[in-house]
């Protein structure tokens, strides 16, 4: 009797025993859509996802390419140009000669350079704590204030958007010996007139105070955002444990605010080393160069004596000083902020 087709079990194509499913051990599993198969290659889900991510990355790069190009040209271009000029004796006429490290050797022996660097360092040491303390205190008050918070936030931020020249002129009037508002207030208390901008010991603290009033609003907003991002449950738990207001601030708020505080310190330190406008308007570098900053020295070298190579060397030294100072801050304050 002849068997029908349904009565027989065909062996696997791979040569396995009848009834076994799948390829034999050791055989490579290939799908019809794989490149090794005979069918048309079909991209899997992972491949399609990879292609989509690549297209999105290219589209995003195309959108940011114009601004990225402008950033590279106007940020790194001047830096490279300054590095080139610093090893030349470039003059206003356009003539220049390569002199290597001549400008830097000249800087090391320039007493005025070291004097201006010292003035800048002292000003930064005064300015940064003033600004950060004022910004942090104001941010804490605004964080606890519910009534008219937006109004006071805008009011405290207003000096930051004011022109630095206008702010310097206003504070110069306030510091006036005869008719200044501050000396008039001191006169009511029986204190004689004080020459804030004419005293070698008071000029830097006076300018630092005016600059702190001008610039604390930016840091205040950043610190306020950091305070608002702290989970309320953490401070509530500390309150339940019996911590006082100062203890909560010292042991809960400040550690959680550390990354934001590190950012603010770095930004304000950079601004402190770059001070020029306030000193130029309020004191013109005086008295007796007591407010003669490093950027003021750079300005005189480049735009008063037209020694652009020497001025470029001063600018690169300033860049290195700020970089080292930022790295030191990172080491001391920001090492645990990651």
Can you walk me through this structure?
The protein is built from 13 helices and no strands. With 338 residues, it is mainly alpha-helical. Helix 1 crosses helix 13, helix 10 runs antiparallel to helix 13 and helix 12 runs antiparallel to helix 13. The chain is flat.
Write the layout of secondary structure elements.
Layout: H1 45-85, H2 102-108, H3 111-144, H4 149-157, H5 164-174, H6 181-188, H7 203-228, H8 232-240, H9 245-256, H10 258-273, H11 277-282, H12 294-304, H13 308-332
Helix pairs in contact: 1-13, 2-13, 3-7, 3-10, 3-12, 7-10, 8-9, 10-13, 12-13
Number of strand elements: 0
Order of helices and strands: HHHHHHHHHHHHH
Structural class: mainly alpha
Helix content: 55-70%
Mean pLDDT: 84
What's this model, at a glance?
By secondary structure, the chain is an all-alpha fold. The chain is built from 13 helices and no strands.
Short key terms for the protein model shown above:
single chain, 338 residues, mainly alpha, disordered N terminus
């Amino acid at each position: 009797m002849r068997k029908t087709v349904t009565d027989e079990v065909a062996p696997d194509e791979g040569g396995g025993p009848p009834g076994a499913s799948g390829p034999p051990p050791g055989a490579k599993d290939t799908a019809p859509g794989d490149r090794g198969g005979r069918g048309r290659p079909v991209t899997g889900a992972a491949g399609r996802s990879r292609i989509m991510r690549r297209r999105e990355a290219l589209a995003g790069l195309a959108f940011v390419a114009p601004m990225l190009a402008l950033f590279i040209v106007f940020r790194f271009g001047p830096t490279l140009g300054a590095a080139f000029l610093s090893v030349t004796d470039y003059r206003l006429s356009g003539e220049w000669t390569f002199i290597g490290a001549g400008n830097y050797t000249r800087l090391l022996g320039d007493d005025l350079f070291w004097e201006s660097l010292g003035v800048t360092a002292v000003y930064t040491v005064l300015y940064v704590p003033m600004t950060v303390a004022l910004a942090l205190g104001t941010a804490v008050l605004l964080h606890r204030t519910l009534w008219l918070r937006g109004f006071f936030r805008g009011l405290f931020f207003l000096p930051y958007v004011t022109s630095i020249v206008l702010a310097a002129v206003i504070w110069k009037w306030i510091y006036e010996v005869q008719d200044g508002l501050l000396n008039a207030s001191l006169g009511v208390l029986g204190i004689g007139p004080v020459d804030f901008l004419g005293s070698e010991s008071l000029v830097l603290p006076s300018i630092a105070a005016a600059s702190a009033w001008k610039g604390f609003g930016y840091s205040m907003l950043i610190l306020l955002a950091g305070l608002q991002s702290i989970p309320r449950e953490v401070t509530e738990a500390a309150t339940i444990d019996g911590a006082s207001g100062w203890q909560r601030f010292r042991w809960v708020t400040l550690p959680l605010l550390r990354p934001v505080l590190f950012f603010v310190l770095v930004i304000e330190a950079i601004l402190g080393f770059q001070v020029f406008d306030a000193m130029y308007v309020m004191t013109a570098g005086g008295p007796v160069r007591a407010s003669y900053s490093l950027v003021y020295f750079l300005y005189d070298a480049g735009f008063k004596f037209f020694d652009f190579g020497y001025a470029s060397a001063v600018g690169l030294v300033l860049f290195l000083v700020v970089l080292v100072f930022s790295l030191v801050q990172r080491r001391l304050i920001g090492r645990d902020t990651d």
